[in-house]
Write a structure and sequence with these properties.
Helices cover about 50% and strands about 10% of the residues. The protein has helices spanning about 40-55, 65-70, 75-80, 100-110, 115-130, 130-145, 155-165, 175-185, 190-200, 210-220, 240-245, 265-285, 290-300, 310-315, and strands at about 10-20, 30-40, 90-95, 230-235, 255-260. This is DUF3800 domain-containing protein.
Length: about 325
């Protein structure tokens, strides 16, 4: 996809994602989705890749984030993310806690609740309702709101959702989370309507897939000050011209998109390094295994508008507003 205006004056960022599982936001392989972007020229990117090869000395044809994340290569990772490293001041990572994104969507769609309502429910989570019931609620929410998919789903997703919400027993103290659950219980008819809308016309309700909104957020970030942005992206079939055209907020910001394989395009490989290590560091932090040294290194790159509600990991990573 290429736009005409201002192509010669637009900046070009290299982008890649990590943790993508489409609309599966619960019960998948990862709990965190990351979208990384880097403003770097080809020579600097090639020099970065060459330096990492020199420092890591792996026989692999293509280096990936897992090479950098090995403890024996901590010094190479510290160089890559450090203040004197190749991406300092020229990169950004947008992080999404996928289960929290799911909770924000179901609270908004079913009860008209706010992000603050969703955060209250999410933070209560398994601690308040029990791990089994909380997992059942997330699974039912995902089945209710997904436009399509290949994994098994109940024949009546709205009824399954209502049962899962009923299973979230209120506490005795009448917390904010209890109030959100009460509103979801009252939204039973709305759940039926939403599922019917998705079955009749999947485009009628926004997709759960975080990729396109993350792309939009990233373009908006780099277009500050009125700059036009071109995107050099790792090969990605979801970023079709039709989907990008539907992002009306990018009009006057996005100058074009082109795709390249990270094997042959060092700028995309640098973006792949960045987002891969960021997602893994964030995933570990979310699971309670925070590495303070890595959190400090990653923090300058994290978008403070990331979709995050866990307070401990969010504060350490800089992912909270």
């Amino acid at each position: 996809m290429n736009g005409d205006p201002g192509l010669s004056t637009a900046i070009e960022i290299a982008c890649d994602e990590s943790g993508s599982e489409g609309e599966r936001l619960a019960g998948g392989n990862t709990d965190v989705f990351g979208y990384g972007s880097v403003l770097i020229d080809g020579d600097a990117a090639a020099a970065c890749v060459a330096e990492l090869r020199l420092r890591i000395r792996s026989p692999a044809l293509e280096y990936k984030a897992n090479h950098l994340l090995r403890r024996k290569h901590r010094a190479a990772l510290a160089w890559f993310l450090g203040t004197d490293g190749p991406v300092a001041g020229r990169a950004c990572v947008y992080l999404i806690d996928k289960p929290f994104l799911l909770v924000t969507r179901v609270v908004s769609e079913i009860s008209g609740g706010t992000a603050a309502d969703a955060a209250a429910l999410y933070r209560a989570g398994p601690g308040a309702f029990g791990a089994h019931r909380w997992t059942a609620f997330l699974t039912a929410s995902n089945d209710l709101l997904r436009a399509g998919g290949r994994w098994p789903a109940p024949d009546d997703a709205a009824a399954a959702f209502a049962r899962a919400v009923s299973g979230l027993a209120p506490s005795r103290s009448g917390t904010a989370a209890d109030a959100v659950v009460d509103e979801l219980r009252r939204g039973r008819d709305r759940a039926v309507e939403v599922r019917d809308e998705l079955d009749r016309a999947p485009g009628g309700v926004a997709s759960l897939d975080p990729l396109v909104p993350s792309f939009a957020r990233t373009v908006e970030h780099w277009s500050g000050g009125g700059r036009l942005v071109r995107v050099l992206h790792d090969e990605q079939r979801m970023l079709t011209p039709e989907r990008l055209a539907a992002l009306g907020t990018l009009k006057g910001r996005l100058a074009g998109v082109r795709f390249a394989d990270s094997i042959v395009e060092p700028r995309v490989q640098v973006a792949d390094f960045l987002v891969g290590v960021a997602r893994r560091i964030a995933e570990d932090a979310l699971a309670g295994d925070l590495d303070p040294e890595l959190a400090v290194l990653l923090r300058p790159y994290v978008d403070p508008g990331s979709v995050w509600a866990d307070e401990a990991s969010g504060a350490a990573l800089g992912a909270l507003p």
